[in-house]
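stage 2 :: seqdesign
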């Protein structure tokens, strides 16, 4: 029995640092990820359809990302499955609908208004699109999301044994001013199960199994919105 206990303690020391997801959700308590918006008054909030493009990430920050023109947000489509933007939009919309049922604009209404917005492909920015969409929806706040990786396990041609991988960022925009009130990001790829047994036990929502890209995206959204300043 003593031998088994010692072996278990050794395994814990070896495996303790890891987790089943090799990635991160930004959560600096002193930054814009955790602003105090407890006094913010608003009647309507909407989720704008996700943009397929990379605005910023911990590795390659972009100055004033929401003010960049849309063509500069180009992202390699090889890392994005068809319909990934709609999946991410729905995941964020459903989560916020549960938290803010009385203020939430429906996903269908937001998508319809967004489609009809008059736009200039060369001059429009994510911020301008958010302001136009929010104004037409009579919304006070708009959530903008950008997605640059949404890859199912085993679909990387150069790595047949690759695992699911998701990377995205979300921003809360005040429609009247265009001010960014909050942002957070997620960049995660599932590790090989053999790399971190204890990590899988610690993250019970993922578990000791391979996950699909949809499951990883759902995990990422929940992770990111843990620090969302509105309840």
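stage 2 :: out
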């Amino acid at each position: 029995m003593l031998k088994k206990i010692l072996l278990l303690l050794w395994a814990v020391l070896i495996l303790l640092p890891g987790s089943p997801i090799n990635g991160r959700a930004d959560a600096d308590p002193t930054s814009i990820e955790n602003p105090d918006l407890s006094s913010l008054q608003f009647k309507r909030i909407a989720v704008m359809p996700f943009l397929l493009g990379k605005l910023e990430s911990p590795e390659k920050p972009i100055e004033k990302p929401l003010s960049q023109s849309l063509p500069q947000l180009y992202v390699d489509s090889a890392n994005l499955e068809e319909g990934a933007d709609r999946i991410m939009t729905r995941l964020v919309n459903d989560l916020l609908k549960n938290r803010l049922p009385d203020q939430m604009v429906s996903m269908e209404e937001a998508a319809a208004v967004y489609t009809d917005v008059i736009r200039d492909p060369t001059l429009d920015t994510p911020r301008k699109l958010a302001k136009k969409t929010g104004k037409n929806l009579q919304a006070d706040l708009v959530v903008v999301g950008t997605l640059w990786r949404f890859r199912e396990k085993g679909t990387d041609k150069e790595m047949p044994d690759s695992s699911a991988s998701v990377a995205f960022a979300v921003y809360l925009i005040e429609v009247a001013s265009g001010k960014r009130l909050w942002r957070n990001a997620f960049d995660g790829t599932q590790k090989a199960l053999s790399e971190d047994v204890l990590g899988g036990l610690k993250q019970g929502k993922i578990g000791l199994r391979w996950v699909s890209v949809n499951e990883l995206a759902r995990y990422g959204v929940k992770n990111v919105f843990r620090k969302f300043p509105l309840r």
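stage 3 :: structure notes
- Helices lie at 2-15, 84-99, 107-116, 126-137, 197-202, 213-224.
- DSSP finds six helices and six strands in the chain.
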